[in-house]
Amino acid sequence: MARFVEENERIKHEYATYLRHAKGQDNTSIDKVQAAIRRFEESTKFKPFKKFHRQQAMDFKAYLDRQKSAATGKPLGASTVDATLRLVKGFFHWLVSRPGFKRVLTYPDVEYFNNTRKDGRVAHEQREIPYPSVQQAAHAFQAMPFETAFQMRDKALFAFFMLTGARDGAVASLKLKHVNIGLGHVFQDAREVNTKAAKTIHCQFLPVDPAYRDCFAAYVTYLREVAMFGPEDALFPKADVQAVKGKGFTNVGLSRKGFSNAAKLNTIIKGAFAAVQMPQFTPHAFRKTLTELGDVLCQNWTQRKAWSLNLGHENEATTVNSYLPMTTQGQLDTIRNMAGQGGPSKLPERA
Asked: Which of 50, 88, 172, 190 pairs with 62 at a CA distance of 20 to 30 A?
């Protein structure tokens, strides 16, 4: 069986060009679209797009229900299925107006890619994702050693996540010049830093335990005065791996280059928690920890807005909805505690 159709490949290339130049999508987003379309082709045994029939859309849903995740071996998650259907629907919505498709494809046909309302709600339902408390984070941080260059880097990395709540992808691409220790300021310049949606972010160190700032400052001093790092060198460099006679390839110290992605940063933070027998929280979980802290410390709307902007959110609702959702238990406790507040007896009299 053919694993690709030449005409399909040409059309997919045209669509990728459209997404990149007309819609401004990046390569990561386009790769997800291409993977979703590939799944659809597999479900049809690679029939040409010009032989589309609405039954293929219905069969595609059944096909996705039977698929297993390559990572877990379990059925695809509701959010994965929903996103795949949405991406493929977008592709066919674009195809409707293309030459040669008007006779075989209509906008009503494209609607057959819609997910069921029930499954759509399940896919977008907020889930309670665990995150460390301020105390748990402090415990894991204090247990981290700070002697070798690699230990200093790792502990300073933990401190930096707590000081800023920055996204791991951005942190992996930061350079020394982006940090001003004296001002406690981090300039996430989208021209050089891998920020979400290529958005430039000005970040001030958050009011957390001073031990985090002291650790990070000591690390930066080490890089500048001992390792002789310059402004263009990575803030959190990877290992300098070289061939050593009799030892093969080995780490000889810190490189001046950063990591290509955030995978290693995640491993470091997970390892810090695992070392003290705690759940292996990720760097992204710190954003929920810090949002919860901000909810306690912020005393007015100005402070709440500033805290939200510090996390890279222009809209404060994003911070609240994404990182401070009310749990079911929180909802129940809140209503239960309102029982002693007077209820209807406190309402004003009607005129």
From this structure: 50
8-state DSSP, 276: T
Q: Which residue has the tokens 């710190």?
A: 286
User: What's the pLDDT at 200?
Assistant: 93
Is-contact 51 99, C-beta < 8 A?
Answer: no
pLDDT in tens, 195-250: 988 899 999 999 999 999 999 999 999 999 999 999 999 999 999 877 777 777 77
Instruction: State the residue for tokens 């000005």.
Output: 202
| Rounded Cα gap, residues 324 and 314, in angstroms | 16
Four-point Cα dihedral 265, 267, 272, 274, nearest 10: 160
What is the structure's pLDDT at 319? 67
Q: In the chain, what is the straight-line distance between the N-terminal and C-terminal CA atoms, in Å?
A: 79
Paired residues of 202 in beta bridges: 187
CA 73/CA 54 separation, integer angstroms: 30
Please give the CATH topology (third level) of the domain spanning 134-312+319-323.
hpI Integrase; Chain A (1.10.443)
Per the structure block, which two tokens stand in for 68?
């297993």
Whether the model pTM is above 0.90: no
169: pLDDT strictly greater than 90: yes
Residue 144: phi and psi, rounded to 5, are -75, 135
Give the alpha-carbon dihedral of 157, 163, 166, 171, to 10 degrees. Answer: -30
Among 164, 192, 129, 157, smallest CA distance to 312 is for: 164
In 3D space, the residue among 157, 309, 153, 284 whose CA is nearest the CA of residue 229 turns out to be: 153
How confident is the model over 36-71, as pLDDT tens digits?
999 999 999 999 999 999 999 999 999 999 999 887
Which two tokens mark 180? Answer: 């001003």
Task: Please tell me the distance from the alpha carbon of residue 67 to that of residue 96, in angstroms, as a whole number.
Answer: 28
- Provide the residue ranges of all domains of the chain, joining segments of one domain with +: 6-123, 134-312+319-323
What is the amino acid identity at position 126?
Answer: Q
**Residue 21 in 3-state DSSP?**
helix
DSSP 162: H
